[in-house]
Recover the amino acids of this structure.
């Protein structure tokens, strides 16, 4: 089991817990590769998925992970709940808590919402993304994917390209990679890069070709088109020309690099279809590893005993 009761973020998360989740993820991937693809390790446990923001991959991944573990799932959608009638998060959660749940997965638009939730329920809380703060489970599946591909994370050179400033995925990836001993360079327009790079312990560049020639793997982040009106980038075309993972840029490299993307992808903006669908890309591996790693997280926070295949 873990030292931590909750998974709120990776900035202060114990490295021993992080490594245990990653290592256990591979055991669950073995289960996913069996004929039944499931276990009953969390039979009798009830987990509520509380999504106050739209989600496809993360929500489905958690729901599938819970089913594969034999747990009972309750899916809560803010758009069809009493939140629309003015009910507070505290009242909503405490009403759900009274139904005897064992854990909660929450995605919310406000940073700190997952931490706040721990004050209202006794069960384990898992952060599925809180505003622009963190998205720890995405970072963990990224670490699983990197370790699966390279056999290690320590010493790897990782480039992160795109909207670093507004990305909760980037923050969690940076925290995880730093803990595990990787080198990190972030790249993007100056308007989309963080001002606290020194505190985060990362290097910044505005030259994507430099990053691609240096790195072992590159993580492309979604350009948040809903923020285009803020004038952070002049146009999608200009961004694609300077910072997009194009086939032309990748094909000029004198080595193979691993291409990653947390999704959803804006094809033709941050990444070309030819690159996203290439042998270098492990984007679909990330999706499967998302189920395995979330099974690992849920089991290590809510289960007990040994994992038996």
């Amino acid at each position: 089991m873990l030292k931590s009761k909750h998974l709120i973020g990776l900035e202060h998360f114990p490295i021993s817990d992080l490594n245990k989740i990653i290592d256990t993820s591979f055991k669950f991937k073995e289960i996913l590769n069996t004929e039944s693809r499931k276990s009953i390790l969390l039979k009798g446990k009830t987990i509520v998925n509380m999504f106050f923001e739209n989600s496809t991959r993360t929500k489905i991944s958690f729901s599938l992970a819970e089913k594969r573990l034999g747990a009972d799932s309750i899916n809560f959608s803010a758009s069809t709940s009493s939140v629309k009638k003015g009910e507070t998060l505290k009242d909503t959660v405490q009403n759900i808590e009274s139904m005897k749940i064992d854990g909660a997965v929450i995605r919310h638009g406000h940073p700190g919402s997952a931490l706040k939730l721990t004050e209202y329920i006794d069960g384990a809380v898992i952060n599925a993304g809180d505003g622009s703060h963190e998205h720890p489970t995405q970072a963990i599946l990224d670490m699983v994917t990197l370790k699966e591909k390279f056999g290690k994370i320590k010493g790897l050179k990782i480039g992160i390209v795109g909207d670093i400033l507004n990305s909760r995925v980037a923050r969690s990836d940076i925290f995880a990679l730093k803990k595990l001993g990787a080198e990190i360079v972030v790249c993007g327009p100056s308007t989309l890069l963080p001002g606290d790079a020194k505190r985060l312990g990362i290097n910044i560049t505005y030259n994507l070709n430099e990053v691609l020639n240096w790195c072992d793997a590159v993580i492309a982040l979604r350009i948040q088109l809903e923020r285009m009106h803020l004038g952070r980038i002049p146009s999608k075309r200009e961004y694609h020309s300077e910072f997009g993972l194009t086939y032309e840029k990748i094909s000029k490299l004198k080595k193979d690099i691993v291409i990653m993307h947390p999704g959803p992808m804006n094809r033709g903006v941050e990444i070309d279809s030819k690159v996203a669908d290439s042998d270098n890309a492990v984007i679909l591996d990330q999706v499967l590893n998302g189920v395995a790693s979330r099974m690992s997280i849920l089991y290590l926070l809510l289960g007990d005993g040994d994992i038996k295949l």
Notes: Residues 54 and 107 are 9 Å apart (CA to CA). The mean pLDDT is 91.
